[in-house]
Each structure stands twice: as structure tokens, then as C-alpha cells.
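# nightly structure sweep
# worker-07 picked up a monomer target from the shared queue
# config: single-sequence mode, recycle default, output format = C-alpha cells
# input follows
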Amino acid sequence: DNCSSLDCKVDPPLRNISDNNNLYDAYRNGIIPILASDHAPHTIEEKRSDSPPSGMPGVETMVPLMLQEVVEKRLDLSRLVNSMSEAPADRLGLKRGRITEGQPADFMFVDLKNSEKIIVDRLHSRSNWSPFEDWQAIFPHKVYRRGELISENSEIIILHLAALNDYEHPSKIYLKSYWFLLHKLIYVIIILSLVHYLSLIHI
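# output follows
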């Protein structure tokens, strides 16, 4: 409903409701194994220019929107966890993605009763707009990476560079939002999902 004109020009283009329902059913049933999001933070001025670029902001709202789907009983929590954590890690050959002994302590705390509207001014993308503005969503309360608290209430606290890399580094940096840490992995997941999709077409 928040898409008008070329604001939501994306590649591949948005489909009709029937196509969307079929895709969602395929995702819920595991036929589509991995869920990821592109992130193209074009400003609304760029989108409404004479040569509007494709893509729109999505990475910061992906997890909150999908958690809302869980709360509204349109999606099982186990399916969401598998498609956004376990399956991507398995696909990449990474020993992570699960809360279990021997794996990095990457996890987040969420309150499934704390649903709120998406407010653009609280997001961190340079685009400063979202097609999901005013949609209900559940944002993580705390995020940990390798056992270190890196975000609280959607804001980065102090983060060691060593938490971003596998080597020690004495410096500390400040970032606005932990979503910038996630988008690198998400791009890789998108590529792998595309490879999987193309392999299915090949078959």
C-alpha cells in the first residue's frame, strides 16, 4: 500500500497477489529454503527521478516484519529460524547458526509481545523511507555476536573490531546500527539463494 509510482521499482518486479501467496506458501513449506533481503538504500528523490534506480531498503525491517508474521500465526518460528539462520549457515558451510555447544554465541533477544509500528525516523538507512512504514513489527531488544553484546534497542554499543573479524585488534568502533553488520552476510545468502534457484530451473 505504501508503494506508488516507481518508488517500489525492483528487479525482479513485484508480482500479483496470487504469485505472492504461492511464493509464501513455498517458503512456509520449505520449498524455498532460505530467506534473505537485498538492501538498496536509494532516497525517495532518486526513486522519483527521471531515471529511477531499482531496489529499495529492506535489511533493517526484514527480521522485525518476519517476527510479526510469527506473532500473527502466519509463520512458524522454527521455520523462520531455520530459513534465516540454520539453512544459510549450512549452505555456506559455517559452523554457526544454532545455539549449541561449540558454536559461536550469535543470538538475539526478542519480546514477541512488543509489537510496534515501523517509524522511518527510527531507521538507520540513508534512504530515509520505507515501503513498510506504519507496518507492525517486532525489533530485537539485544543482539550478541560471539557472546558479546553489540546492540541494544537497535543501537550499537561499543564493538571490538575483533568481533567483526577472526583476528585480534585493539581498536574499538562505534556504529549506528547492527543492521550494517548483517547486510554483508545477507548479500552472500542472496547469491547462494540465486544459485539454488538457477539450479532448480536447470533441472
